[in-house]
Amino acid sequence: MADVSTQNSLWKIYDRARVASPLASREFSVGVAAMIFLRWADFEEAEREANAAAAGVEYERLLPTEFHWRSWFDSHPPELERIFQELPSALRRSANSSHDTMAIQFHRLGPVVETLSRFPTEALASLIQWVSDQPFETRHDRIAIRDILDALLMKSADRYAREFLTPVVD
Questions:
Q1: pTM for the structure as a whole
Q2: What share of the chain is helix, strand, coil (3-state, %, to 5)?
Q3: pLDDT tens across the length of the chain (170 residues)
Q4: Where are the domains of the chain?
């Protein structure tokens, strides 16, 4: 089960964002999911790159380096605004690698990231900081993040929220 204080810190970010801009709670939930995915994809792409290097094979990145989570997660707000204006196009271009499931997911993420670009910059920066503060390396860490996302969906979304909950696989 996810830590209640961790969930509460996410709700504080949501409340500040909602006051600054009329964000629908579903948009916020989807934004959190997108941020988690972008962070996970950065881990995945780094692992793919390391495996290719170990095999002596060249790895072609799905996203340009400047759009990898590790390249922008600690940027200042004006730089985040620029990144989130350009990131949706970079994600859509990754569809050129249609044989790669992660590239397909990147392509699908483009519209969600466009929504994130409309978040107040302070809320976006807080959300990015929240995601970057979460432990992510172990299976247990990722299950805890999934639980937080599920709780957020249950609390914030409309009556159809259950269709978006992640399946429990142990």
A1: 0.79
A2: 75, 0, 25
A3: 456 677 788 878 877 777 767 666 667 888 888 899 999 899 888 999 999 999 999 988 888 999 999 999 999 988 999 999 999 999 988 755 557 888 888 888 888 888 888 888 888 898 899 999 988 888 888 888 888 888 777 776 555 445 555 555 54
A4: 4-54+61-157
